[in-house]
Please model this.
Amino acid sequence: MLGMPSEVTHNSDDSITVSITFKPGRTMLESEQAVQQALNEVGAVATGECLKRFDTDGAPIIIGGKKWTARGRCAQAKKYETPYGKIRVERHVYQSSAGGRTYCPLEHNARIVRIATPLLAKQVSFKYGHNNATEVVQDFAQHGRKIDRSHVREIAADVASISAEKESCWTYDLPQVFAGQLVKTVAVGADGACVLFCQDEGWRQVMVGTIAFYNDDGERLHTIYVANSPEKGKGSFFERMERELSIVRENYPEARYVGIADGAHDQWEWLKQKTDWQILDFWHASEYINAVAPAFAGSETAQKDWVAQACHRLKHEAGAASSLLVELEETAKKKLKQALRTEVAKAITYLRNQMERMDYSTYKAMGFPIGSGVTEAACKCIVKARLCGAGMRWRLDGAQRVLSLRTLIKSAGRWEEFWKKTSLYGFSKITRKIRPTAKTK
Model:
């Protein structure tokens, strides 16, 4: 507990005054650090006073039709973590006559996240969503706040568990659209990013989904993100995407729903059921065109010119994909080096399989996005940026906790709304083990 040379005054208007005396240092930096320490001490004292208001007077209470009584004659003290330091607060703990689990009104009413006050839980989980536990500890230290790495991981895991608990029952507001704008198109994408997992798991694919909103000019307004740890069949991932999409459709029934992906079979099967148009990512198609350029031009400059012309045709001319396929089939009959013949054959197969999703001139005319860049960027910012640091290996549950935090943070407006709902409605008692088994960074 911090030193507490503070004076607390309870005023008649129900306000609280906390005063403290500090001594400036020899340098400005030392003085500022002294001010910081003093402010943390004031914050800790004030937080303790606020917490007391959420407790009972120790009288019996009724829960679920049963009488619960306070254990012991006096309130029991417990340490809590706050943004300003540890505090020790006396509170009443209740139990029914049948024994069993206990209940602490203070913790329930104040929305304590196991050992952390709500603001500390919010701060810790936000920072852990962006950085590893060691970096979070270092970040807090810059503000004169010491916190253990184990507490960082535990608090973040608890918040992630609350998020998972409420995912199916809380409906989040969709991003606000600026006045005068209209959500004309909703683009749905899904892709995977490889992450290194512990033990025998090795490199496995984390699924990432995006639901992007576009206005009448084809400008992206907002994006909702979904991410899921590796699983057989990807069932949970697609269930979560469907839950998000159902809410979006209720709010934007007139919008056009477009699925954009890079060609994976299971993604197309799902997108075909959930969207009205399916579009092959233009840039993936361009890669196949670039690979066969030596079959159509000799010099490097001539190859670049051919690729540019072919891509321009594909993007702007009706029936360009069919024409390119015919040209590739004719070229395949010529004498080519084996490596180049293989590339041509791959391009032919690709175009044949994806032909119905390559009408780019029509998509452009309708104002549809034709690239899956939003989803690919999500793979990097949601997954790679946090889970693929040097030396990082994950367990499935540990990775999912981080993914839950990051998608909540990155989806416009959801982080603040989650905490407002948590403050208003509370959450079930956290039953996750205090020490997580995941050895994450």
Observations:
- The two ends are 28 Å apart (CA to CA).
- The chain has 15 helices and 13 strands.
